[in-house]
TrEMBL record:
Pfam families: PSCyt2. It comes from Stieleria bergensis. Residues 1-42 form the DUF1549 domain. This is DUF1549 domain-containing protein. InterPro entries: DUF1549 (IPR011444). It comes from the Bacteria.
Length: 341
């Protein structure tokens, strides 16, 4: 592929640079694999353009619902004498490139809507994707919303695709950092969950070949620092991409540059101290929310179809039936079936 492209469009042969620098032309082995990474990082995929506007509307509705119920829950907690800390403290180190707990809206970039309109705010309540319980945020993480888990890239199986990114559910569900110039090749990201972190160097995803295989790193379950070795690209401009695994969450809080493992440990310790007031508040608030009786919970329920009606909702087609199948009707049907036997 590289040999054909160079002969056709450049009028030179570069194939010998695969093993050593070119003997006659100014083509190094690094140039060869840079070209290889560029060509093989391209991939074919289809995107559901017809659903973009619908997804945008759904994302706005979800954001409005979150804001509405966060206000209600916050008021309920205040009535119980639980007040969130009034002051939020942040790290101000020059080594911190991006702090998602205070990322400006203009720099909160993503492909799609899976990461919501902003990162989670400390002291506000959110639903836990694993337990379904409402819990108070303590750290200010940017977290993908589970409702979008079904969105995946559509790639033709017949197309030979050597790009590692093509195998990831990236399309429409990627958080990306602002573009920056790399001054130190050690980039570390504080993340939790499962997925991948990738570096897009000079607008190209160079991930194939011995020179570029370090620009994408897997993230495994749990909170941890993930470090990318990008020393080769110092002086280049790049951005980072955070891609959650299918049906999984990947949260991001910090991106740092040039810190050693020991310094990252010190960052963890400082974050724990900064988060301590919110952690103490969250412990009390979460305990209170668990004790809230069902009568109070009903006032926070958006819709309960046990009423047996779709009033106020738009029903298209016949998949959901003319009326909801309530627990009462289902139990009656089961009882009738047992009598017939």
């Amino acid at each position: 592929m590289i040999d054909v492209m160079s002969k056709t469009f450049l009028g030179v042969t570069v194939a010998c640079a695969r093993c050593h620098d070119h003997k006659f032309d100014a083509i190094s082995t690094a140039d060869y694999y840079a070209l290889s990474g560029y060509l093989q990082s391209s991939n074919y995929r289809q995107v559901r353009f017809e659903s973009l506007e619908q997804n945008r509307q759904v994302a706005n509705q979800l954001a409005n619902l979150d804001a509405r119920y966060q206000t209600l829950i916050l008021e309920r907690l205040k009535q119980a004498g639980l007040q969130p800390p009034s002051q939020v403290s942040y790290l101000t180190d020059e080594s911190v490139l991006f702090d998602y707990s205070r990322m400006p809206q203009s720099q909160y970039l993503q492909e799609g809507y899976v990461y919501g309109p902003s990162a989670r705010q400390q002291g506000l309540a959110y639903m836990d994707a694993k337990t379904g319980e409402v819990t108070v945020e303590t750290g200010g993480w940017s977290t993908n919303v589970p409702i979008w888990d079904g969105i995946e890239s559509i790639t033709e199986g017949s197309v030979r695709n050597q790009n590692a990114l093509a195998k990831l559910p990236k399309s429409g569900r990627t958080l990306r950092s602002p573009t920056f110039e790399l001054e130190n090749g050690r980039i570390s990201c504080l993340v939790k969950g499962t997925g991948h972190v990738g570096a897009c160097v000079d607008s190209h995803r160079l991930i194939v070949g011995p020179l570029h295989n370090q620009t994408i790193v897997p993230v495994h379950e749990g909170q941890r620092w993930v470090t990318l070795n990008l020393q080769r690209y110092v002086g280049h401009r790049l951005h980072l991409e955070f891609i959650p695994a299918s049906d999984a969450q990947l949260s991001v809080r910090l991106v740092t540059q040039g810190l050693t493992d020991q310094q990252l440990g010190e960052i963890d310790h400082r974050l724990a101290n900064l988060d301590k007031p919110f952690q103490e508040y969250a412990n009390r608030a979460n305990e209170f929310l668990k004790r809230v009786d069902q009568a109070n919970i009903k006032s926070l329920v958006f819709e309960d179809f046990e009423s047996g009606s779709y009033d106020g909702w738009t029903v298209t087609g016949e998949a959901f039936g003319k009326i909801p199948r309530t627990a009462k009707k289902l139990s009656a049907k089961l009882s009738l079936g047992s009598r017939r036997r």
